[in-house]
Structure formats: structure tokens, C-alpha cells
């Protein structure tokens, strides 16, 4: 479903942390949300997930996200928050199974569709070997993959993931991005915040750059992630290379150092 955000603003603690954001995100795409610490990425995601009060409008297809009942919201939108809290001593499989709650309610037996969604999410996040471990006893990166699998098992048309690649080893960063692409290829809209420029450049169909709570730029990564924009938004210079699969962008220095005589 298409996600359309218009004039979205959020105030927190009397500070305007998002100001007049407009987005038009197509289904079937992975959209990278970029910007420095404090730019407003998590706030935008929390607003979409109904976790902070926002002014403006947010529509997913014909659904007004701000007006949705929680049960319907959970069937339309899955959200991996930046704070990874696992509140219960559940096995990994039981925790991923919670992702099916919006579809089957408490106490109902799992249908084949539920089991397939759980198996698929666990396979995508490479956590099948961890299925019987207690989730709270896993490493940080393993917990991220388990919590992402729970969101993926929700099988929603919109998936929002706040820095799902941070804390993951290089192989699992790629596994994560491949999984997000697969979910998008099946028709979902996938919005993912990232600090790794190469992951954003190689795996995202579009990127949205925030700066100081405002939309700075949006479009195809190769076009948007120019040296000038990286310098202006992040204050860095980056080494740029290309291979058959796309751009490689490695931050190498602060702009202020480049400008020193
Ligand atoms: N509860 C709050 N009260 C006041 N200001 C807040 C509150 N929560 C967040 N902010 C401010 O809102 C701004 C945006 O924060 P947000 O977490 O959305 O940034 P971000 O782009 O996700 O950053 P990061 O890359 O560090 O995760 C920051 O300046 C932050 O200090």
C-alpha cells in the first residue's frame, strides 16, 4: 500500500522535532531513512506507528493511520523500535509467534498460515538454530534478529524498522537487507532507518534524508547521496566506489578537517 504523509509535525518537550514532513512512498520498495543523530528518524517512525502525537496526515492506502483502532493498525503496520526490549522469558519461537497475535488473537491455535509466516520470518532472519533458546539470553545482535522476525511474521503491508542493521555482524547486515528486499518484492512498503551509507546506497530503492527535523532530500540513492549532500547533512567526506551491484560509500573524514589548510 502507498504511504502518503503530509505536513507532519511533532513536538516533544515543547521542541519541534519534526517540521512539515511530506512523503509519498510506493509499495514494493525499500526506502532508507537517513540523517544524523537527532535528525528525527525515530520520531517519524514512532509517529507512523502511533506512538507519539503528531499533526498533519498519514495515510496507508485509504487508511488514516492516526485514526486506526490498535487491532487494525497491527494488521497494517509492523514496527521494530530502536530500543530492543524483550520483556518476557520466552523461547525465540514463542516470541516470533507473538507477531501473529493481530491475526489470531489470544489463546487461539495457530493456523497453517500462522506457522508458515513464523517459519518464513525465522528463516529470513537466520534464527532457526536459535528457536528453542530463551530470547533474553541471546546476544544483542541475535536479539535484533529475533525482534525483526517477530515484526516480519506480522505480514503487514507496511514494515517500519528502526536501525535493524546496527549491532549486526557484516554477514547478518546483508542477510537483513536481503530480507527487507524480499518483503518489499512481495508487495510491502518497507521503511528502514540506517546509518551505514553503503547499505543504504546498495539495498534501498529510495532514500529519504532528514536534517534538523525537516525533509532535506528524497529520491534514488545514487542521485541523493552526493558528496555535497553527505557533507551538508552529516558533515563528512566519503570515499566513493562502484561495483556491479551499486555504490560503496565509506565516510573517511570530517568536512571541517578537509577545509583546514
Ligand atoms: N521525549 C523527548 N523530549 C524532548 N525531545 C526529544 C524527546 N525524544 C526525542 N527528542 C529529540 O527529538 C530529536 C529527534 O530525535 P530522534 O530520536 O527522532 O532522532 P534520530 O534521527 O532517530 O536519531 P538517532 O540517529 O540518534 O537515532 C532529538 O533532538 C531528540 O533530542
Automatic annotation (TrEMBL):
InterPro entries: AAA+_ATPase, ABC_transporter-like_ATP-bd, P-loop_NTPase. SUPFAM superfamilies: P-loop containing nucleoside triphosphate hydrolases. Signal peptide: none annotated. Gene3D superfamilies: P-loop containing nucleotide triphosphate hydrolases (3.40.50.300). PROSITE patterns: ABC_TRANSPORTER_2. CDD domains: ABC_Iron-Siderophores_B12_Hemin. The keyword Translocase applies. The keyword ATP-binding applies. Residues 3-237 form the ABC transporter domain. Keywords: ATP-binding, Nucleotide-binding, Translocase, Transport. It comes from the Bacteria. It holds the Pfam family ABC_tran. One of its GO terms (molecular function) is ATP hydrolysis activity. Part of the ABC transporter complex HmuTUV involved in hemin import. Responsible for energy coupling to the transport system. Belongs to the ABC transporter superfamily. This is ABC transporter. It comes from Nitratireductor indicus C115.
Amino acid at each position: 500500500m502507498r504511504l502518503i504523509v503530509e505536513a507532519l509535525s511533532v513536538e516533544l518537550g515543547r521542541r519541534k522535532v519534526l517540521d512539515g514532513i511530506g512523503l509519498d512512498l510506493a509499495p514494493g520498495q525499500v526506502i532508507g531513512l537517513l540523517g544524523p543523530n537527532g535528525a528525527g528518524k525515530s520520531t517519524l517512525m514512532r509517529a507512523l506507528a502511533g506512538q507519539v502525537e503528531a499533526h498533519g496526515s498519514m495515510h496507508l492506502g485509504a487508511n488514516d493511520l492516526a485514526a486506526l483502532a490498535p487491532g487494525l493498525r497491527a494488521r497494517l503496520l509492523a514496527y521494530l523500535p530502536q530500543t530492543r526490549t524483550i520483556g518476557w522469558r520466552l523461547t525465540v519461537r514463542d516470541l516470533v509467534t507473538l507477531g501473529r497475535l493481530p491475526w489470531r488473537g489470544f489463546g487461539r491455535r495457530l493456523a497453517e498460515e500462522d506457522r508458515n509466516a513464523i517459519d518464513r520470518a525465522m528463516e529470513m532472519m537466520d534464527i532457526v538454530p536459535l528457536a528453542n533458546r530463551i530470547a533474553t539470553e541471546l546476544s544483542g545482535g541475535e536479539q535484533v534478529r529475533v525482534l525483526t522476525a517477530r515484526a516480519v511474521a506480522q505480514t503487514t503491508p507496511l514494515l517500519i524498522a528502526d536501525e535493524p542493521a546496527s549491532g549486526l555482524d557484516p554477514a547478518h547486515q546483508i542477510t537483513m537487507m536481503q530480507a527487507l528486499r524480499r518483503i518489499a518484492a512481495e508487495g510491502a512498503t518497507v521503511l528502514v532507518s540506517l546509518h551505514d551509507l553503503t547499505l543504504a546506497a546498495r539495498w534501498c530503492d529510495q532514500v529519504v534524508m532528514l536534517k534538523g527535523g525537516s525533509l532535506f532530500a528524497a529520491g534514488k540513492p545514487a542521485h541523493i547521496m552526493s558528496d555535497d549532500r553527505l557533507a551538508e547533512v552529516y558533515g563528512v567526506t566519503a570515499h566513493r566506489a562502484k561495483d556491479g551491484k551499486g555504490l560503496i560509500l565509506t565516510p573517511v573524514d570530517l568536512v571541517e578537517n578537509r577545509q583546514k589548510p
